[in-house]
Design goal:
single chain, alpha/beta, Aspartate Aminotransferase, domain 2, Aspartate Aminotransferase, domain 1, 2 domains, 3-stranded parallel sheet, 12 helices, globular, binds pyridoxal-5'-phosphate
Length: 374
Amino acid sequence: MAEMRVPLLDVKAQYATIREPLLQAVESVLASGQWILGPAVRDLEERLARYLAVPHAVGVASGTDALLVALRALDCGPGTEVICPAYSFFATAGAISNNGARPVFVDIEEATFNLNPNALEQVITPRTRAVMPVHLFGQSADMAPIMDCCGKRGIPVIEDAAQAIGATWRDIPVGGVGDLGCFSFYPSKNLGGAGDGGLITTRRDDLADRVRMLRTHGSRERYKHERVGFNSRLDSVQAAILGVKLAHLDSWTAARASHASAYTQAFADLDGLITPIDAGRGKHVWNQYTLRVRRGSRDGLRSHLSEKGIGSDVYYPIPLHLQECFADLGYRKGSLPVSEAATRESLSIPVYPELTSDQQGYVVETILNWCHDN
Ligand SMILES: Cc1ncc(COP(=O)(O)O)c(C=O)c1O
């Protein structure tokens, strides 16, 4: 097959398919002069609440802010602990720390890269204020035992659903399983804006009210501040862009799932290359297709792909408990071995909706040839 360029993600290819309606939506917000909150944000919040089957969806400035605001709404501050997996994007733990709480890391399941519920009970203390599972790469965490363990103790659950919009646990869209759900509209997400954006979902009226107050400086009434909150609003222009894209989300997700299944078939039974598992907990939305490359050869495969013009990335090369900024928490190398192994072995390859069958064929052929020679 002739060499070609296959990026890890191609946002421009997606833009080309919806250029006209996007430009019209942006023009309409600009012409309205309502650039902060306003009808575009309200409309998107209502549509997303329906899409995610929750009564409340609140737009915020980013996925990181969604986590910050959610943690603040549950009073996860100094003297409290919040449990999260050691294998995630930094924001998961950064938001806990930025609220003054202590991140407590647990290991992940080898098969799904998600928080291992069996490791949860032993790290719960009287200071545990929340548990924050992450639905990594587009697949729900194992919510039954997590909800059961937290429910018995009255500990709230914040779902970091940044990578998993449209995924479900059983039949329930993620973000509506726990007390609060946090989503990101960063451009690489399945529903990505042209910049930053985020969303908080909840079934609880009290928390919806608190989150709305916290996103506008802790104020319900102008210049009266009940709590110290944030300036964290979703831009109207982003809301309009996301509104156009939402209509395509299900077909984009279906394309991701079809690419994922083609990869999994092509790479079945390869020695040393493990394909990602759909654990059947609900709908997987394949934000990433993440291989495990055994025998210390992950970086070799990555360089080979790069030489052949194929984009890939390591999500994530350092586990959260071994990040320099968390050195004072006292974790050591070997503390959370499954997360540490994942950082050495994982490699994400292109699975974006616009990937053509020629491009996918080329990625498959390049990886199969590499496996043959290594
Ligand atoms: C798991 C996870 N949590 C939180 C975030 C933070 O989202 P944002 O980049 O929109 O701040 C991201 C994405 O970047 C993420 O992947």
